[in-house]
Amino acid sequence: MRIVDGKVIVCSPGRNFVTLKLVTEDGVHGLGDATLNGRELAVASYLSDHVLPLLIGRDARRIEDTWHYLYTGAYWRRGPVTMAAIGAVDTALWDILGKTLDTPVYQLLGGASRESVMVYGHANGETVDDTVKAVAHYIDMGYRAVRAQCAIPGVLHAYGVGRGQLYYEPAEKGRPLESVWSTERYLDFVPSLFERLRKEFGFDVHLLHDVHHRLTPIEAGRLGKSLEPYRLFWLEDPTPAELQSAFRIIRQHTTTPIAVGEVFNTIFDCAQLIEEHLIDYIRTTVIHAGGITHLRKIAALAELHHVRTGAHGATDLGPVSLAAALHFDLNVHNFGIQEYMRHTEETDRVFPHAYSFQRGAMHPGDAPGLGVDLDEALAAKYPYEPAYLPVNRLQDGTVHSW
Ligand code: CS2
Ligand code: MG
């Protein structure tokens, strides 16, 4: 079953998406998401200039071999551009295999380990009262797990405060927005937010919070400790994770569960975190960590060490990614939770899909392959628009992690 054709489709139905389409000699096509927020065209070029020409003529069934052909064989390894491109090829090949065998991808992975996968939504507000209302809205929609973020008094454009209730989108068209950060104000404010949320909603709903890489390890230890009474499901990205050993400091100070990994690209980015039991949830994704093939290896290592999965699922991960994540989540034994940020209606129209949401959980559906398609004619009506994530600065102007 040879690959005979392929193309990269860049479209912007509400936000930018890069999608790889591979076609076999039997006319079966598979899709892979290659979106890298704010660096979309680099992955598109990597795929069309350097990967697609090498795929023509290869056997589409040789998924593991193709992965190593593109990773081990390329000499240059790792990095978000390379790994998003490999992830897209890998995802498209699993999609093709499923369609060829008339089977949903989760069945190829070993079948369902659960009925559906618990997801969390994003509640955010300009004030604590607004955030309370947003959490109530998610609970009304059936969610059992909600991430809560709130603007911080005296901090301009705090992370996580969206413009719409359901469609939080941090990338801005044109040049990056500049936001301002104060660790002092944040650390003093966040415990009061969760105190209020627990008062309003009790302990039956899972509450999550994303620090978005902004603290030092000792500050993160202090935050985790001050949030212990509110029993978070997880505290996400408390500190930048290039230095994996830094998480030892956080662990020495708090029992609040830690989730990390949305920007990781390979198992090497998280091996120490997992092997030393420094985290509780690994957030690597199909799209940015080399596809289903590589994500399974990360999950297997995590399973040995009691670390569960909690894959990133922001709006910049397209519907093809979300579907691939859901097939993976349904199968993997050490599943924890899946992030689910709803795509806009325009996006959903461009990518018709079989996955569905019900009572706080999702199912990938039973269509062959991944169960997502791309309406190319409609996609062509939404050309690429340059857009970037914000750049963050401390109050004195120093650039800080966003
Ligand atoms: C966030 C993302 O969903 C999350 O947890 O960290 O919204 C992240 O900011 C974006 O995906 C960046 O592209
Ligand atoms: Mg995050």
Can you describe this structure?
The chain is an alpha/beta fold. It folds into two domains: 3-104, Enolase-like, N-terminal domain (Enolase-like, domain 1, 2-Layer Sandwich), CATH 3.30.390.10; 108-367, Enolase-like C-terminal domain (TIM Barrel), CATH 3.20.20.120. Helix content is 35%, strand content 18%. It is built from 13 helices and 18 strands. The strands form four sheets. Strands 4, 5, 8, 9, 10, 11, 12, 13, 14 and 15 form a ten-stranded mixed β-sheet that branches. The protein has a three-stranded antiparallel β-sheet with strand order 1-2-3. The termini are far apart. Magnesium ion binds at residues 210, 212, 236-237, 262.
- For the termini, the CA-CA separation is 45 Å
Q: How much beta, percentage-wise?
A: 15-25%
Summarize model confidence as the mean pLDDT: 96
CATH secondary-structure class of the largest domain: Alpha Beta
